[in-house]
Specification:
- It is a single chain.
- The chain contains 10 helices and 10 strands.
- The strands form 2 sheets. A 6-stranded antiparallel β-sheet has the order 1-2-9-4-7-10, with helices on both faces.
- A hairpin with a 2-residue loop joins strand 5 and strand 6.
């Protein structure tokens, strides 16, 4: 009866585990991967020390270190770089670049692979090669991705897609071959017609998996312009607005119907009953059962 989103991209996860085994590296304690339009996020914890050679990835690769300190050697395109990578530091590679890596202690990290076509507007994302750097805004986003992907099957894919898009915008603005050419996004919000079409679409698809790219398409905007203009118009990010609308619909069903919590979770687009219950309690206060009982006891 439960509706669950895919926790992992099975082929990617299986390929990575097979690669580790083929190159003599033990299995990590935990490995989660979530694919969204324009990108893939992989969270690895407890990966044993080792050395690995990788073919070029189909997207730009950001590696965010979650270990306290990670002694790491990177080699690509004839250049090597060794460092003690601190928590929150990251490395960035363009798509298609083979690389070699070695580390001498257990590794915790977040890998984000971002498609060159992530924006969907004909502008390619082409990251520059950076062996070690720190970017405070990107660090905040990576920590949010870590928290989201840690939920596994209960992760909000629209939220993950929004975070990947935010990363792509920052990379293009600061760490790409097009950084100096990047135009300033429109400062105005959505038009009345754009807003009405998008909000109507969201309302009629709350039970489904909503994608940022589809909302941007309806508005006739590129992905990174849409998210900013939506927030300027509505007052909150798209994923947050969708979550608020799902909770409001759930409240209405709890007040006026006898639908089970499973039925309500399916009708409001949550991954499962447990996801619905935990989110409801975190953002509303009472559990759905407590909320229903309180609503029915009112005069």
């Amino acid at each position: 009866m439960k509706k669950r989103i895919p926790e992992t991209t099975a082929s990617h996860r299986d390929q990575w585990l097979a690669l580790l085994e083929n190159q003599g590296i033990g299995r990590p304690t935990a490995l989660h991967a979530i694919e969204v339009p324009g990108g893939l996020v992989q969270l690895t914890t407890g990966e044993p020390p080792g050395r690995i050679s990788l073919e070029g990835a189909p997207g730009n690769v950001l590696m965010f270190n979650l270990s306290p300190v990670q002694a790491l050697r990177q080699t690509r395109e004839g250049r090597s770089f060794a460092s003690n990578m601190l928590h929150g530091e990251m490395t960035l590679m363009p798509c298609g670049v083979p690389s070699q890596w070695s580390w001498n202690s257990t590794c915790d990290r977040l890998d984000v692979i971002i498609s060159p076509d992530v924006f969907g507007d004909g502008n390619k994302l082409a990251a520059v090669d950076r062996f070690l750097f720190r970017d405070r805004e990107m660090e905040v986003i990576c920590h949010r991705l870590y928290q989201a992907v840690s939920l596994g099957g209960m992760a909000d894919r629209l939220y993950v897609e929004s975070l990947v898009t935010q990363l792509a915008v920052l990379i293009r603005r600061r760490h790409s071959t097009a950084s100096a050419e990047l135009g300033i996004p429109p400062s105005s919000g959505l038009t009345r017609n754009q807003a009405r079409c998008i909000l109507d679409y969201i309302e009629s698809h709350l039970s489904s998996e909503l994608r940022l790219g589809e909302l941007a398409r309806i508005a006739g905007l590129s992905l990174h312009h849409f998210a900013r203009m939506f927030k300027r118009t509505v007052g909150m990010a798209p994923h947050r607005y969708v979550l608020e609308r799902r909770l409001e619909r759930a409240k209405g069903m709890l007040r006026s119907t006898r639908a089970s919590l499973v039925e309500i979770s399916l009708s409001t687009g949550f991954a499962s009953q447990s996801h619905f219950t935990s989110t409801f309690r975190r953002l509303v206060g009472p559990t759905p059962t407590e909320f229903r009982a309180c609503s029915r006891n009112r005069p």
